[in-house]
Amino acid sequence: MGPTGNMDPRWSATVERSAPLALAEPRKWRSFVGQILSLEGLKVPQGRSPPSPAHGVILGFVMEIKVVPVEIPEGANVIIGQSHFIKTVEDIYEAIVNTNPQMKFGVAFNEASGPCLVRADGNDESLKRVAVRNASAIGAGHVFVVMMTNGFPINVLGRIQQTPEVCRVFCASANPVQVVVAQTELGRGILGVIDGASPKGIEGDEDIQHRKDFLRKIGYKR
């Protein structure tokens, strides 16, 4: 369902009146909208499911929020970002191999116009397939996914960010990752990511020393 101007005027009015309730208490909003529609002899517009707690109304648009888990193989890392041009897969491929030739990786990019295909490249077929599965599951236009082993995001992230068509990076991680996606009548977009667990406390003196020792042990500090 698109802008409220494209709906039955009575449905539009219901949506607009109920917007604050939708954001504050979505369960009550579902009940409210259903009752109003019933009283006015209306049905949910064709092609739309009934309002649910996953729906919200913002500026006259109905939006559904979904959480997409990211598949990360054992020992792999993922980079998720947004770009804007079809040559993204080739340019990110070159950015990685020119920075860390030993890295194994696959990259997938969701085309956002024309045939809207998932474009893919890489030097490891298994990682390329995982990247494609994740990009397809996220389903947001112009999003790219890099899945890598034999290296870490810190080795290539700066070079990827310097790629001219790359707009932003959402995360670079080996943690469990969930992507928060907004769905409208146009398509999908990433609102943000959940990267690993929430903090459990604040580091103390022993934690600080452990952090410093660990970085020197793995060679990132001297």
In short:
The chain has 222 residues and is α+β, with helices and mostly antiparallel strands.
How does this model look, in words?
The protein has 222 residues and is an alpha+beta fold. It has 2 domains: 4-59, no CATH class; 68-195, 3-Layer(aba) Sandwich (hypothetical protein tt1634). Helices cover 35% and strands 28% of the residues. The chain is built from 6 helices and 9 strands. The strands form 2 sheets. The protein has a 5-stranded antiparallel β-sheet, sandwiched between helices. It has a 4-stranded antiparallel β-sheet with strand order 1-2-8-9. Strand 1 and strand 2 form a beta hairpin. The radius of gyration is 22 Å and the shape is flat.
Keywords:
222 residues, alpha+beta, 6 helices, 9 strands, disordered N terminus
